[in-house]
Design brief:
about 50% helix, about 15% strand, binds phosphoenolpyruvate, binds magnesium ion
């Protein structure tokens, strides 16, 4: 039996492919970084020789913290070959090989796991290297870096003792920057660092290079399960069982003089997406100096003059890499004595704007297909393009009021307003516990700060560049961010920051614009950008529409929302919540009047109806009517009608309905106008009536206070109102008198609405508009409800069209919000011409979780403890609620094959839920206008992913 292969040299990519079966498999086995190093080697890019230890080895190690059998021997064998390729030997004082040890999982987790550089240095090799390079400063600097990194990363010593020792030393010498340190200075620091290791750990810094390597590999394996790595995986949905690979690679040095250097670059601008090389480098420096943002870097174009040959090679190689991967690359490189080495390449992280532009450009450049472009942009990135910005007016005002505070590097677009906090824990706490909008302010960020960054509306740092940790992480999460605002002085002790003669204390408000890099004090007003002006996004979305099967409609109540929805590409209105208009201040008193008088009037109407029914049937109380009975009944009916016509309550009731009707008519007219030619689903009144009245508690207090004070004016009205509120009070209003139940108990309200809809539609049609009203009856649970309500409403529609002499095409349908409705969909489809899944209520009723309280009370805990994978009010529960939907569609279409099906709950704007709707055969999803663009992309991705 051949031994299990745990280690692959960079030039063994074919073997890895054979074993893993696919390139995705290679990425899983060797990690993204390892696979790319191997791939770069194959393409002929100059990569320092080395090898990768597989993720399988990492997973095997996790079981009992031991390298799997055979792994270490394979490491030693690979090391031998690497020594040969590099022409150097590990631990050989006359010509030592140094290696780096880096993590690399299948999916990039920037900065989340560990790295150790300069492995192989010890007292002896350091001496040898000085002889070889004649550069004691570089050697001593490299050695102290190893002691520091091994001390912190591998041996778990805090950063502070090392940093403090260096700071103290520099202060003592009167140095400001590291470049002032001499060879002797670094030698002294190395000794100090070794003493720190001894003091903290009780043993000497390990001199054996193989021991160093073994420790480093273990540390990288262990870092897969560090808290920050686990947090990151949760957030990014990366499975825990993938493991990380470890890359052992020959060190090359950018700090060997002024013909050496190191840098990072993106092959396109990761902020705007423009097709220009974007990067930074430092001469005579080592990799982490650039990434940490500690020294000020130069723009990549500067390299052209400083090391022209290396620059030329760099530009050629990066072009080759982009051509090869057909993706924007994020590369790390080092120049050692004029020779360029590529250390890493990967698909670059980018802002939402850049993602869209790059995808669009690459289609036009012939690199990728439209379908590929659609798949390269995340729906959430489209969402970010709608992120708020400050209006020019707000900015001008703030400037005039001298509230301009500072300007830094615009690292991640979008505007944010929040209270500042100076550390990640406080920022997270203030956001979580108090729901505050927070802005995290730091000199610079480290991976440990990620939880604060995630909780923040915006991030501001005084140090670091466009590729620093803060910038990269913020761009990825779409959090507006400014870095390197070096004019700001942060005083961590006083918990305040100063700039431009202004002071902002912790907890005070600032406004920052990650697109311009500007910071203002106070709260600037936010506005929403005009998506239609964004050429690339519009093109991408139109490509998306070409491949999707699902349409995207919008939930919109007002014509202005409908117009926005249409601008954003909505193909209809999937939900107009009519009752929202009832809350307008000019209408609410009339709505309240309607409610106050509904019950008493309805009782009288019901009475009359019963008498008329008896007359018609010729029977009363079980016996046939005699002539005198008939006459008495007729008289009773006539009296009743007369009394009703004069009854103040009934007058108020019908008066209110008459008042509301033309207002609703004009609401609907506006919607038909905005959606000319497209369907508009109008839902009839849905919420329990008490929602339109003051709360019982406040009324009780008011009445009691008035009585106690002996105030009589207005008391009677208040008491009447209280009586109505008390009579409408329900223990479970969400499961009470609402939706279609209102249509049965108080039919006149829905009748008025249907009349308003059809009057508006007919008027619109007369004016050259093409209206497509669809009347939606909410909360049906039993077909008999529809049987009772719908024919009367349809008759009103017909009557109105006859009165107006106009025909419009229309539909009557229902929401499916109650599990019983889903289960009996076949019966319901006999009446309903369309279904719209109200998944807010359907989720509430299926789980039995109150949608108003569950999140606050237990749902967060449920998700944290893994009882539920996701909050089912945000992402559709496919196995439960989703299954009900699927069977409802199947059953419904058996009866009515052309049944139109949509969704209008919040899930209509969630990509995973949209995919489910695609899979089960919805015709459309409907979501808020702002989410229409992302939903269009998600619908296309659903189609492409499930071809
Ligand atoms: C729903 O229940 O999903 C729905 C859209 O109705 P509402 O949220 O208004 O109850
Ligand atoms: Mg509902």
């Amino acid at each position: 039996m051949t031994e299990k292969k745990w280690v692959y040299l960079f030039d063994e990519v074919e073997q890895a492919e054979k074993y893993a079966g696919s390139w995705d498999g290679v990425r899983g086995l060797l990690g993204g970084k390892g696979a790319n190093l191997a791939e770069m080697t194959r393409v002929g890019v100059p990569v320092p020789p080395g090898f990768t230890i597989t993720t399988e080895a990492c997973n095997a190690f996790q079981k009992n913290r031991q390298f799997p059998e055979g792994m270490w021997d394979q490491v030693l064998a690979a090391l031998k070959i690497t020594e040969k390729k590099a022409g150097k030997q590990f631990g050989d004082p006359t010509n030592p090989l140094l290696v780096s040890c880096r993590s690399g999982a299948k999916f990039s987790m920037p900065g989340m796991m560990d790295t150790v550089l300069n492995i192989g240095m010890n007292d002896e090799t350091a001496k040898g290297m000085i002889k070889l390079t004649n550069n004691p400063r570089f050697v001593n600097d490299s050695y102290r870096r190893l002691v520091h990194m091994l001390g912190t990363v591998v041996l778990g010593i805090d950063d502070e003792p090392f940093e403090d020792a260096l700071k103290q030393y520099k202060a003592q010498k009167g140095y400001k920057v590291d470049t002032e340190m001499t060879a002797e200075d670094w030698a002294t620091i190395t000794e100090t660092y070794k003493a720190i290791v001894k003091k903290e750990k009780g043993f000497d810094f390990p001199q054996d290079p193989l021991k160093q390597l073994e420790f480093a590999i273990q540390a990288v394996f262990d870092s897969w399960n560090s808290k920050r790595a686990i947090d990151y995986r949760r957030r990014e949905n990366i499975p825990d069982d993938l493991g990380t690979a470890v890359n052992i690679q020959t060190m090359v040095f950018g700090n060997m003089g002024n013909d050496s250097g190191t840098g990072v670059a993106f092959t396109r601008d990761p902020q705007t997406g423009e097709n220009v090389m974007f990067g930074e480098y430092l001469l005579n420096a080592q990799g982490e100096d650039v990434v940490a943002g500690i020294r000020n870097t130069s723009k990549i174009t500067g390299l052209k003059d400083e090391i022209p040959d290396a620059y030329k090679a760099f530009m050629e190689i990066t072009r080759k890499l982009e051509d090869h991967y057909k993706e924007m690359q994020d590369v790390e490189f080092t120049i050692e004595r004029g020779k360029l080495w590529m250390l890493q390449t990967r698909n670059g992280k980018r802002s939402a704007k850049a993602a869209i532009k790059i995808a669009y450009d690459m289609v036009n450049e012939g690199f990728i297909s439209k379908e590929e472009a659609i798949m390269r942009v995340a729906p959430a990135q489209v969402d970010q393009m709608l992120h708020p910005q400050f209006s020019n007016k707000a900015v001008d005002e703030a400037k005039a009021q001298k509230r301009f505070f500072a300007k830094g590097v615009n690292a991640s677009p979008g505007a944010a307003v929040g209270r500042i906090y100076f550390d990640a824990d406080t920022a997270e706490k203030k956001h979580k516990d108090e729901g505050q909008d927070v802005i995290m302010v730091r000199p610079f960020t480290k991976p440990d700060d990620v939880h604060g960054m995630l909780a923040a509306k915006g991030i501001l740092t005084s140090e670091g560049g466009a590729t620093s940790h803060a910038a990269v992480v913020a761009r990825q999460f779409g959090v507006p961010c400014i870095v390197g605002a070096s004019v700001i002085q942060i005083d961590m002790e006083k918990r305040e920051m100063r700039s431009n003669g202004l002071v902002v204390k912790e907890g005070e408000w600032i406004s920052l614009d990650g697109s311009t890099g500007e910071v203002y004090i106070g709260q600037l007003e936010l506005t929403t950008p005009d998506v239609t002006q964004q050429k690339e996004l519009m093109a991408l979305l139109s490509w998306a529409d070409e491949v999707s099967r699902l349409q995207v409609w919008a939930n919109a109540d007002y014509p202005k929302d409908a117009r926005r929805a249409r601008e954003y590409g909505a193909k209809g209105i999937g939900l107009c919540r009519t009752e929202h208009m009832f809350f307008e201040t000019t209408r609410l008193p009339h709505v309240q009047q309607m409610i106050m008088n509904a019950e008493a009037t309805q009782k009288k109407l019901n009475n009359l109806e019963a008498l008329e029914g008896a007359l018609k049937a010729g029977r009363l109380e079980g016996r046939a009517l005699k002539d005198e009975d008939r006459a008495a009944l007729e008289a009773e009916i006539a009296d009743g009608k007369k009394a009703l016509a004069e009854d103040p309550g009934a007058k108020a009731y019908f008066g209110a309905l008459d008042f509301i009707l033309p207002l609703q008519r004009s609401d609907f007219y506006g919607l038909f106008e905005a959606m000319n030619g497209l369907p508009v689903i109008i839902r009839l009144i849905d919420p329990p009536l008490h929602e339109f009245l003051p709360s019982m508690e406040s009324l009780l207090t008011e009445v009691a206070t008035m009585r106690a004070k002996g105030e009589t004016e207005g008391l009677a009205e208040k008491e009447d109102l209280l009586a109505v509120v008390e009579s409408l009070h329900e223990s479970n209003p969400m499961m009470g008198l609402r939706g279609i139940r209102l249509g049965i108990v108080y039919p006149d309200i829905m009748k008025m609405q249907v009349r308003a809809i059809f009057e508006a539609a007919c008027d619109a049609k007369k004016n050259g508009i093409d209206p497509h009203p669809e009347v939606m009856i909410p909360l049906t649970g039993h077909v008999n409800e529809l049987k009772l309500v719908q024919p009367t409403l349809v008759q009103i529609a017909k009557d109105v069209m006859a009165e107006k002499g106009v025909e419009v095409s229309y539909k009557f349908g229902t929401m499916i919000e109650i599990p019983r409705a889903a289960v009996t969909a076949a019966e319901i489809a006999e009446y309903a011409e369309f279904f719209s899944f109200g998944t807010n209520d359907l989720t509430q009723m299926t789980f039995g979780y109150s949608r108003d309280d569950a999140e606050r009370n237990f749902l967060v805990t449920y998700v944290e403890k893994g009882v539920l994978p996701k909050n089912p009010f945000q992402q559709l529960d496919r196995e439960g609620v989703g299954r009900l939907m699927k069977s409802a569609i199947e059953e419904g279409r058996k009866v009515r094959p052309n049944l139109e099906v949509g969704i209008c709950g919040e899930h209509g704007g969630d990509p995973s839920s949209i995919e489910w709707c695609h899979l089960i055969g919805n015709n459309y999803v409907s979501c808020s206008p702002f989410r229409v663009p992302l939903a269009r992309l998600a619908a296309a991705q659903a189609a492409l992913n499930n071809k």
